[in-house]
Amino acid sequence: MIDTQTVHFEWQELRMDDLFNIVRGGSPRPIDKFLTDDPEGLNWILISDAQDGSKFITSTKKRIRREGIKKTRMVHAGTFLLTNSMSFGRPYVLQISGCIHDGWLALTPKSDQLSTNFFYHLLSSPLVYGELSSKAVGAVVKNLNIAAVSKLVVRVPPLDEQKRIAAVLDKAEALRRQRQESLDLTEKLLQSVFLEMFGDPVTNPKGWNTVELSKLGTLDRGVSKHRPRNAPELLGGKYPLIQTGDVSNAGLYITDYKQTYSDVGYKQSKMWPKGTLCITIAANIAQTGILQFDACFPDSVVGFKPHRGVSNSIYVHFLFGFLQAILEKNAPQAAQKNINLAILRSLRIPLPPIDIQDRFEKLVSDTMVVLHDQKKALKISGEFFNSLQQRAFRGELDLSRLVLDAEATEPEPKPDEIPVPEQPPKALGRATGSASFKVRSRRFIPTKSEEARLKVLDAQLERGEPIDWSPDYFRFRLLGRQAEPFRAGDILQQAATVFNEETLPKRDELVKQMLGMMEGVGEVMLSGALLKQRFDTERHEIRLELLP
């Protein structure tokens, strides 16, 4: 039972089936015979249609023929969908109509006195998840049924209080989400810079000499001679043990470990020094990470140590980020995919000059300082959100004096209702792109005095004269008004046409300044837009886009 000791007296204790009509989806079978490409078909809503971190389902990848409706369940916009298997209990809000299979439970409000945002947060909370988890059935895969959800007892405040709680949690969640997106952007921007400096290693457009990977450094497999590898006497000592999962989940640097070797385990293995690039060759193919401590690893991981003056581990790490999909696709497969040491050693890769590699390494090292701060801020915002959420649903927050604004009472605008702002400034000697979206954070909105100075520089550019370097002009006129989508290189090229070459910072310094300007945008205006990135598989490049 959910704790009720601190809940305000206005709150009511109600079962979920007092609040919602709860039904299960269904599926016409065999489903392949009902799938269709006909635009008049019905949306077929799958769990994969829910985007990570989103509370809304806005579109589907598949449709079914209308005659299948007799064996499924039709649901409409505003309905809650609750996953009832696998990642059970995860709620989503429908913004479309469609049909659902039996992997969903549909919850339709019985009253207009229920706030969609409030119940989204409530159903997403650990408080409710713990209750649902205790009622789920199944040993390996837990499943929810209608009865379990129907009997769940929740505390519900009056509608205005629901809206106040939802408004506060929306803001806190936006801060957490935008800090995560800012972190993701900074990490992915490094991939974009890699492409600018080295080109796509798959197609090698810059024409670097290609050599076998073995020419860049030494590659050797880890050692684990004893079988079985997880024998109790091998584990539990003082020697760090890295597994393929530790590498796959690490990112650039491997900073922690989950297992250790005993003296017995250490004697049948090998210790690798800090700075070794670990490359997985089984299960998760060609994932990489750089050791930040001395460690052992089994023969499912290869250690790479670069030759001084030829290469560095950071270049090779980012290189594998582009080659990983190719290696995995072509990996021999028995019980599980794997590649061998010979394949790695003979892999031909571009070898740019070491001075360019070292410049990239320096840029990455500087950026990691920003990433460290971002990760710390993300952890703090996550802890704050969790604490705020728990207190809100226990009735411990006094929000009676919180004035609800339009955001808490009006629906979110559709994409075609969002106004299109100004264009970025014209680059000298070239036309600007088509319609653009402004980054709607106060960090990218100049004050009146700043705007006055910017207009002086605008006038100079209108006369066809480049201007001296101005961080404010770069921030407000270039970065803050980029057309969607854009690449890091687009901004750098535009800067080169706007500013005098003698005053323009070097490329590495300019990228650092750009990262600094975008870092922490979510702290400034919770409802502001952020940049996101995706890899364009057709063009083989990182694309920067503005979040709506």
Write the layout of secondary structure elements.
Elements: E1 12-15, H1 16-19, E2 20-24, E3 35-36, E4 42-45, E5 56-57, E6 62-64, E7 73-75, E8 80-83, E9 91-94, E10 98-100, E11 104-109, H2 116-124, H3 126-135, H4 146-151, E12 153-156, H5 159-198, E13 210-212, E14 217-221, E15 235-241, H6 244-248, E16 253-254, E17 259-261, H7 263-267, E18 271-272, E19 277-280, E20 288-291, E21 295-296, E22 301-306, H8 313-329, H9 341-346, E23 348-350, H10 354-393, H11 406-409, H12 448-462, H13 471-478, H14 488-498, H15 507-518, H16 521-524, E24 531-536, E25 541-546
Parallel strand pairs: 4-10, 5-9, 16-20
Antiparallel strand pairs: 1-12, 2-11, 3-6, 4-6, 7-10, 8-9, 8-11, 13-23, 14-22, 15-17, 18-21, 19-20, 19-22, 24-25
What does this structure look like?
By secondary structure, the chain is of the alpha+beta class. It has three domains: 145 residues, Adenine-n6-DNA-methyltransferase TaqI, Chain A, domain 2 (Alpha-Beta Complex), CATH 3.90.220.20; 142 residues, Adenine-n6-DNA-methyltransferase TaqI, Chain A, domain 2, CATH 3.90.220; 188 residues, no CATH class. It is built from 16 helices and 25 strands. Strands 2-11-8-9-5 form a five-stranded mixed β-sheet. A five-stranded mixed β-sheet has the order 3-6-4-10-7, with no helix packed on it. It has a five-stranded mixed β-sheet with strand order 14-22-19-20-16. A hairpin with a 7-residue loop joins strand 19 and strand 20. Helix 2 crosses helix 5. The longest helix is centred in the N-terminal third of the chain and has 40 residues. It is globular and about 70 Å long. The protein starts with 11 loop residues before the first strand and ends with a strand.
